[in-house]
Amino acid sequence: MLANLDFGYLNWAVIQTFILKGLFFSVQLTLVAMMGGIVLGTLLALMRLSGKNWLVMPAAVYVNTMRSVPLVMVILWFFLLIPGGFYTAVAGSYGANYRAEISAIVTFTLFEAAYYSEIMRAGIQSVPRGQVYAGYAVGMTYRQTMQLIVLPQAFRNMLPVLLTQTIILFQDTSLVYAIGAYDLLKGFDLTAKNLNRPVESYLLAAVVYFAICFSLSMIVKQLQKKIAIIR
Amino acid sequence: MGTWDWQVFLQDTGGGQTYLEWMMSAWGWTLSVSVLALFVALITGSLMGILRTTPSKTLALIGNAWTELFRNVPLLVQIFVWYHVIPSIFLPLRSVPSFILVVFALGFFTSARISEQVRAGIQSLPRGQRYAGLAMGLTLPQTYRYVLLPMAFRIVIPPLTSESMNIIKNSSVAFAVSIAELTMFAMQAQEETSRGIEVYLAVTALYFVSAFAINRIALFVERRVQVPGMIGGGK
């Protein structure tokens, strides 16, 4: 059965032109959206826990809306809503040529912020209340207490979950297929179409994604064990 | 951006139906894919989750391998594999419509998540329950059937609810293999009418409504089957 598969078409030139180019963007998109998403998400979590209605409401509406809509829809929404002229104005010909890619980076950062914010919210809530009182007792302001005592602990407690979410984020980057951005899946898609090898290409895509995500999740598991021992 | 023009939904698509009618049929496809995939996911996910908690190393390995396999490959890639790879390896599948392939792709993808939750639900029960069942002379399958699963499934209803809502959202990925569901409709209708904002707003609202409906149904089920005396169980 498997004898029909022929991977002979794969040479270094093909891998370099199609697949590595896509992998580079997928990784870039994942890292930018992770960092931006965690920062924005932490802000959203702090807003939701602030107890001030004018901060809680918008943050809650934002997070719940993003979480109730399919990511593909959000990707299409942003691609559609931000007119092409905007990209040209901001980034010149680069913006015009990489419209889908830039739009994807913006979308993922804003979208993942909603998911990261729920993780950070749980993390902040898992810090014992006494820690906050201790901060106030030594004369710290709210900001200092959060920045120096609560957030570092929340972040550390939630590190495995944040990383697991990042693995999901990496998998989700494949959805930029909807707007034609050049990611890892697109790289395999192009080899499938240009070299007329759909079976081998998509099978290989699955294997590569699996290898990356499975190894990452094994690393997270190890990390989880380490953190559990420290506590 | 111009002004709203909701009249666009009354326009004829050129095929004798309005865009509204087309959208409603697309909604039907989204719901059919989701419900059937949920069915597949619940059955295989529960089975794999149960296998992972059995004393047999082989069965646990099968369950673990299944979960890792379907959890670590993006859904869109899995859909492509079901669509392009599997039918060319298993030739009889060539005549299977892509709708069915997508149902299995989405169902198996979700089954990995459900298997995680079912496993966690079973493992959250006190060890003594299993021993009590076995000590009374129940076989292992009977212990699962009468002692462990009735409790475990009630515990995992809340995470299963979010998975059911995720299935509705994830069904949007089926556009990639040309299933005529909501996302596919949105992309095509936007191109034909250039009224993207209205089209996308309407489709997004339909996703919202569908997921919310699932949420309400699950809440109803949850209330009906809650266990008294447990934290989530009320009185």
Chain-wise SSE layout:
The complex is a heterodimer of chains A (231) and B (235).
Chain A: H1 12-49, H2 53-68, H3 71-81, H4 84-97, H5 99-125, H6 129-137, H7 142-172, H8 184-194, H9 198-230
Helix pairs in contact in A: 1-2, 1-5, 1-7, 1-8, 2-5, 3-5, 5-7, 6-7, 7-9, 8-9
Chain B: H1 19-51, H2 57-71, H3 75-89, H4 98-123, H5 127-135, H6 140-155, H7 157-170, H8 182-193, H9 196-225
Helix pairs in contact in B: 1-2, 1-4, 1-7, 1-8, 2-4, 3-4, 4-6, 4-7, 5-6, 7-9, 8-9
Summarize it.
The complex is a heterodimer of chains A (about 230) and B (about 240). Chain A has about 230 residues and is an all-alpha fold.
How would you explain this protein's 3D organization?
- The complex is a heterodimer of chains A (about 230) and B (about 240).
- Chain A is mainly α and about 230 residues long.
- Chain A has helices spanning about 10-50, 55-70, 70-80, 85-95, 100-125, 130-135, 140-170, 185-195, 200-230.
- The mean pLDDT of chain A is about 90.
- Chain B is built from nine helices and no strands.
- In chain B, about 70% of the residues lie in helices and about 0% in strands.
- Chain B is elongated and about 70 Å long.
Main attributes of the structure:
heterodimer, A: mainly alpha, 0% strand, B: 235 residues, mainly alpha
The assigned structural class of chain A equals mainly alpha
Helical content band of chain A: over 70%
Annotation, overall tally of beta strands of chain A: 0
Structure annotation, total helices of chain B: 9
Percentage of β-strand residues of chain A: under 5%
Q: What would you report as the Rg of chain B, rounded to the nearest angstrom?
A: 22 Å
Low-confidence stretches of chain A: none
Estimate the global geometry of chain A from the Cα principal axes: globular
Estimate the global geometry of chain B from the Cα principal axes. Answer: elongated
Order of helices and strands of chain B: HHHHHHHHH
Average of pLDDT of chain A: 90
Task: Let me know the largest β-sheet of chain B.
Answer: none
Give the averaged pLDDT of chain B, no decimals: 90
Provide the low-confidence segments of chain B as ranges: none
Describe the sheet with the most strands of chain A: none
